[in-house]
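User: Can you help me understand a structure? I only have the sequence.
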Amino acid sequence: MAEDLPMVHLPDSLFQLDIINNENFVRITIPEGIDFELPDSFAKIEPEKYADFNADNKPDLMVYLGACGTGGCMYGIFLNQYDNYYRLVFMDYLKGTTFEKDENGFISFQSYEEVAPMNPSKLYVTTFKFDPKAYAYKMDRTFIQTN
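Assistant: Let's start by predicting it. Here is the structure, written out as tokens:
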């Protein structure tokens, strides 16, 4: 007689991500019951960066979501909860993104935007850091960098 296995209940807030490597494409299934739409329904959603963003030894994913403008393109960071179920912890416009791992293993990132269009001599720099208590990325600081 087989043992009854416990049922896994999926919280409504988890997104299902199916990564189709041969097409460089990520299919995102939005959880039922939440009011959420992808920002650009015509964009090809692509994997941007595979990394362990929150130092839990699970592979997380930053995806390109399209909706590009002068302030960059929309990106989302999805933290792996289990299998192909992820929690969305960041979604915003980024441009010229750089990444850095801190002493705790968390990955922070910076986005750069020209103060004056098409003039990279002065940049707005915004740093985002993972807040484990809020389980989300938050803006840490913003400043102007002169090159």
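Now, to help you interpret it: Strands lie at 14-20, 25-29, 46-51, 60-69, 72-82, 85-94, 98-101, 107-116, 119-131, 136-146. The longest strand covers residues 119-131. Let me know which part you'd like to focus on.
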